Amino acid sequence: xxxxxxxxxxxxxxxxxxxxxxxxxxxxxxxxxxxxxxxxxxxxxxxxxxxxxxxxxxxxxxxxxxxxxxxxxxxxxxxxxxxxxxxxxxxxxxxxxxxxxxxxxxxxxxxxxxxxxxxxxxxxxxxxxxxxxxxxxxxxxxxxxxxxxxxxxxxxxxxxxxxxxxxxxxxxxxxxxxxxxxxxxxxxxxxxxxxxxxxxxxxxxxxxxxxxxxxxxxxxxxxxxxxxxxxxxxxxxxxxxxxxxxxxxxxxxxxxxxxxxxxxxxxxxx
Amino acid sequence: xxxxxxxxxxxxxxxxxxxxxxxxxxxxxxxxxxxxxxxxxxxxxxxxxxxxxxxxxxxxxxxxxxxxxxxxxxxxxxxxxxxxxxxxxxxxxxxxxxxxxxxxxxxxxxxxxxxxxxxxxxxxxxxxxxxxxxxxxxxxxxxxxxxxxxxxxxxxxxxxxxxxxxxxxxxxxxxxxxxxxxxxxxxxxxxxxxxxxxxxxxxxxxxxxxxxxxxxxxxxxxxxxxxxxxxxxxxxxxxxxxxxxxxxxxxxxxxxxxxxxxxxxxxxxxxxxxxxxxxxxxxxxxxxxxxxxxxxxxxxxxxxxxxxxxxxxxxxxxxxxxxxxxxxxxxxxxxxxxxxxxxxxxxxxxxxxxxxxxxxxxxxx
Lengths: 270, 365
Ligand SMILES: Nc1ncnc2c1ncn2[C@@H]1O[C@H](COP(=O)(O)OP(=O)(O)OP(=O)(O)O)[C@@H](O)[C@H]1O
Ligand SMILES: [Mg+2]
Known about the structure:
The complex is a heterodimer.
Chain A: H1 2-36, H2 55-62, H3 64-97, H4 101-115, H5 119-132, H6 138-162, H7 167-174, H8 179-208, H9 211-216, H10 224-229, E1 232-233, E2 236-237, H11 239-269
Antiparallel strand pairs in A: 1-2
Chain B: E1 4-13, E2 16-26, E3 31-35, H1 42-50, E4 57-62, E5 65-66, E6 77-80, H2 92-102, H3 107-121, H4 136-150, E7 154-158, H5 166-182, E8 186-191, H6 194-200, E9 203-208, E10 211-216, H7 218-223, H8 228-233, E11 240-249, E12 252-257, E13 260-263, H9 266-275, E14 279-284, E15 289-291, E16 299-311, E17 316-322, E18 325-332, E19 343-349, E20 354-357
Parallel strand pairs in B: 3-8, 3-9, 6-7, 7-8
Antiparallel strand pairs in B: 1-2, 1-4, 4-5, 9-10, 11-12, 11-14, 12-13, 14-20, 15-19, 16-17, 16-19, 17-18
Helix pairs in contact in B: 2-3, 2-4, 3-4
Magnesium ion is lined by residues 42-43, 158-159 of chain B.
GO molecular function (chain B): ABC-type transporter activity; ATP binding; ATP hydrolysis activity
Function (chain B): Involved in beta-(1-->2)glucan export. Transmembrane domains (TMD) form a pore in the inner membrane and the ATP-binding domain (NBD) is responsible for energy generation.
InterPro entries (chain B): AAA+_ATPase, ABC_transporter-like_ATP-bd, ABC_transporter-like_CS, ABC_transpr_MalK-like, ABC_transpr_MalK/UgpC-like, Mo/tungstate-bd_C_term_dom, NA-bd_OB-fold, OB_MalK-like
C-alpha cells in the first residue's frame, strides 16, 4: 500500500515538474506567438476574445526598417560566421597542436578577453567606432563580433582538434603531405562536424546579439534585435507589432532547432 | 629495401635526455624489434627515424642518405601506429590510395596496387567502408595495407598490436610474420611485449631509460642476457634472482644461501673466481627448476615450500619459498600433485645458472 502510494506520489511530482518546466520555457513563447496574431486592441487580454489576424506580420513587413534590419542582420551574421570561423579554426588548431611563447600569449589574451564582462567593452567600442568613422557600418559591427567569436569559440575549436588524434596527421606527413597538407586534408575534414555545429552557433549568436546592435548600430545599419526594441515608444508599446517582429526573428533559430539540432549535438559531442 | 643506421642519436626535451647515444645498424631487409618498459624511449627513437621528431644530436641514415633534416614525406618510409591512425573521413580504399595519390601515381596503377594489398590482407569486402565501421583487427589490417601499397624503403611499427585482444594479437603476429615473407622490407618494430619481440625479430634491441641494454638475436638475448634487467624483462615467468655467497671448499666452488647450495662446474667457477666478488646475484630461469630428484649427478637438489600453484593444463607453474626468496618454477608436469604449504624437493642443473654482479648488475662472463 505504502509503496503504491509512494509510487503515485513520485509520478505526480514528476508530472508537476514537467508541467512547470513547460510553463517556464514554452509559456513566454506561446504568449509571444498569440500576441503576434492579435489585433492591437487585444494584446492585453490575449486569453480572451477570438479576433485573430495576420495583419501584424503584413504591417511589420511593410515597414522598410524591419525588412532592412533583417537583411542587415542576415548579412552581418553570415559574414561574421565565415570570417570568425576562418580565424577560429586556425587559432584552435594552433592552440591544440603547438606550444611556445606565441601560443601561450595568444591563449592568455583570449582568456583575459573572456573574463572581462562583455558590457564593459561596448561603450569604449562606441567611442572607438565613432573616432574611426565606422560607427553604424557593417565593418564597425563586424569587427567586434568577430573578436567575441574568436575569443569564445577558439576554446571549443581547440577541444575539437584535441579530440582528433594527432597520429592521423603524422600518418599523413609520412604519406607524403606537408604540414599544411596534413592540416588541410586530414585534420580539417575530420573536424568538419564540429566546425559545422560551431558555424550554426556562431550565426545564431550574431543574429540574436543585442548589446552591440543597440550601441553600435543606428539608422543607417539597423539590426533586427535593436529594431524590435524600437516598438517601445513614448506613446506606449506596440506589443502586437513587436511580437510579430520577434516571431519573424525567431524563425532561423526555429529552423535550426528543427532541422539542424541533431547535427549540432553530434558536432559538439565530437 | 634500404639499411638504416643510427649513429650516436640523442633526443632531449629541454635539458631532459630521453634517448642516450643510440648506435644501431639495421641491415637491408632485416626486422629489428625495439622492446622495453613504458617510457624507455622506444617510440621516440622510432619517431626520430620517421622524421616526426627532430634529433638533438647524431646522424640517421636511410640507405646511404643522411636524413637528419629530411621531412617525413621524403624519407620513403611507412608507419603503423598503435591507434591505427586511419583517416576517419575517407573510405578504406581512399585510405590505402592516399599515399600514392600524394605521389601523383596514375589512378590505374593505384587501383592495381590497392587491389594487390587488399587481396593479401583479405580486405576486399571492406573497401567502401569508413574506418568507424571496422573492428579493431580490421582497422589494423587497413593500417598494414596502407604501408604495403606504397612499397617504401622502411616499415616502422609503433606497438601495432597492443590495442587488440590476446587472441587477435596472436593471430596478427602470425600475419605480420607471413607478410614479411611476401613483402620483404627493412622493418623497425616497437613493442613492450616480449613475446612479440622474441617471435618477430631477427634481432632484438632491449632499451631502458633511454639506454640500449643489449642488441642480439632473440636466443642470444634469452640465453645470454647482458645484465639483470634484460634477464628479468625477457621471459615469462620472469627469471628468478637470489643473492648468494660463493664458497670454495677443497677446490670446489658452490653458490650458497640459507638452505640452498649448488656446486658449480669448473668453467663457471673459473669465471667467477676471476671476477672476484664474494656475494653475487644468481639467476635461474623458471623452466630450469625441476621437480623431484635429479636422475644423474649433474643436478643439485634443494628444498622449498610451495606457496601457490597455477595449473595451466599444458604445464604447472608453482611458486616456492626458497631461502627467504620467492622462486617460480614452470614446466612442472600438470599431473604432478603439489599442494600448497608442502615442502618439496627441487633440483637445478648448475650449467643453466647465470650470475650477475651485485652492484653493477652486469652479467659475469
Ligand atoms: N613532448 C615531450 N616532452 C617531454 N618529454 C617527453 C615528450 N614526449 C615523450 N617524453 C618522455 O620521453 C620518454 C620516452 O617516451 P616514449 O614515448 O619514447 O616512451 P615509450 O618507450 O614509447 O613508452 P610507451 O611504451 O609508454 O609508449 C618518456 O619518459 C616521456 O615522458
Ligand atoms: Mg610508445
